[in-house]
Fold this sequence. Notes:
The chain is an alpha/beta fold.
Amino acid sequence: MKAIFLSDAHLTGSDDPAHDLLMRFFALLRGPRSTGGPPGSGASIPVDRLVIVGDFFDFWFTKGTNAYPGFRTVLERLDALAQEGVTISLCEGNHDFSLGGYFAGRQGFEVYPEWADFSLDGRRFLVAHGDTVDRDNRRYLALRALLRSSPVRGLARILPLRFLWRVARLSSERSKRMSDESADRLAEIMHRRAREEFREGFAAVVFGHCHKPLLRQEMSEQGQKTSVTLGDWIIHHSYLRYDDGQFYLERFHPRG
């Protein structure tokens, strides 16, 4: 089994620098039913499952099949990968929740509002964006609950999509980078949570959100345990590659 995990691209549209980088990376991914070389240049990367661990989009509002036009190219590439037999697993983040209305029911896609629990090669994985792991951040948790509340969702349903997209782009906090200290602190909180989940039978726990790429492994009576925070595609261009039982935390450096 071969899988790619990534998070925190915070895409704002096709003019976003991260968009071009991701499209170049996605051009290398080839699914089990692929019949030819990748649509871009360079060596291909075989993959059975692509796991997007939240905040892939910096905002997300849709009505039916009407997605933000600036996301069209990347959505078409995800559809193409699904047609090649790649399972696309989407974990919702704090920026791109309510993905189910667009992706649920589409062949090859699965959406997880928070926790994803699945197995690869007989190993149990727990995957989540991770924005609820720090339970001491009560102000954020209250804001999160408000944004997901029925009144706010109802308001989003009646406002014009173009208005929502415009407001979302203007209010994007993509330029606000997490400090090294806060990233380090959150990574440690996530690692401690992963160790708790190891005791529940998980072999690997993967989080996004903290924008710090870090892979830790330890041995237990049940075998090797793996804890990962994925980093991001704004600064680190990092992703986790799982290849037949082995974990590799890598950074994408395109040629040319």
